[in-house]
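Bench log. Compound arrived from synthesis this morning; before running ITC I wanted a structural hypothesis for how NAP sits in the protein. Inputs:
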Amino acid sequence: MSTTWHILGAGSLGTLWATRLARAGVPVRLILRDQARLASYASGEGLTLVEQGIARTYRVTGETPDSPEPIHRLLVACKAYDAPGAVAQLQHRLGPDAELILLQNGLGSQDAVAAQLPQARCIFASSTEGAFRDGDWRVVFAGHGYTWLGDAARPTAPLWLEDLQAAAIPHEWSTDILTRLWRKLALNCAINPLTVLYQCRNGGLQAHQCEVATLCAELTELLEWCGQPAAALDLHGEVQRVIQATAANYSSMYQDVANARRTEISYLLGYACQAAARHRRVLPHLQQVQARLVELLVARRLPRD
Ligand code: NAP
């Protein structure tokens, strides 16, 4: 019997992983916020995954952070701003052999979690899969993609990747996971904030090419200062290709703001601006975009961080 996967956060990605693992017969338990969420979950049939229009429900056992069972493998599927606090609640259940898989976008939250648990192995992930909730305990698999997993401190791949194979979760072990996360952060910083400021789909940025190019030049410099030259290679070219290929899409940050949800700005643009400050450098355009974005968030009564 393989080790149980505890999944922290029954949101879009947490449910996408939990249902596919459960479907493959891998033992899974879902950790919900509190008794109220557990009661709501327990009153239903389980977790529903909608794939190509077909909905299937899987019975996955739910529990709260207070459950006594020790945790050996934890998939952290909260938003970046919730991850350190949510993991801290489970600290007493995590043994020295615990492994955590951190699915958060951006950078900063992974290091915060790892610093809380110096003995545990923290595996960072970067995913291009897409999912959204269309109801409580129900998720739509919206975009097939790939998940890269890696551990900058220990490059050996864990044996449990075979669970992901069995669950048909497309993945690859990466020996340069930080480069991947930095690259994704830079792409996000060049596109997402501008789509919020101009209230447009990704393709709408074709009308703001100069601004995109200036941001890419600053981000390229930043990646080089931060020791990430591989993540900087042809950044502007890839940003242009992404804008074209996803012209009809609304960025995740645009959707968060449109739905009055907190953004992950502190782990994306905020992290980039802080990294520049740590190197005592000024990136005027990036900082200006951050200031404009914060102003917009405050005007909409959304958290500024
Ligand atoms: P989400 O749908 O908002 O799910 C987050 C879940 O975490 C929610 O169910 C929330 O509970 C739960 N949570 C928060 N604090 C908790 C706590 N203390 N204890 C237990 N559960 C807690 O978010 P998501 O879209 O899956 O995103 C997760 C991360 O993956 C983000 O960093 C995101 O950027 C990244 N990502 C997402 C996608 C995607 O397509 N969705 C793709 C790539 C990367 P409640 O339900 O009670 O609020």
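What the model suggests: The domain at 179-300 is CATH 1.10.1040.10 (N-(1-d-carboxylethyl)-l-norvaline Dehydrogenase; domain 2). Residues 8-14, 31-33, 37, 77-80, 82, 86, 103-105, 127, 129-131, 133, 264 surround NAP (CB under 6 Å).
ITC booked for Thursday regardless.
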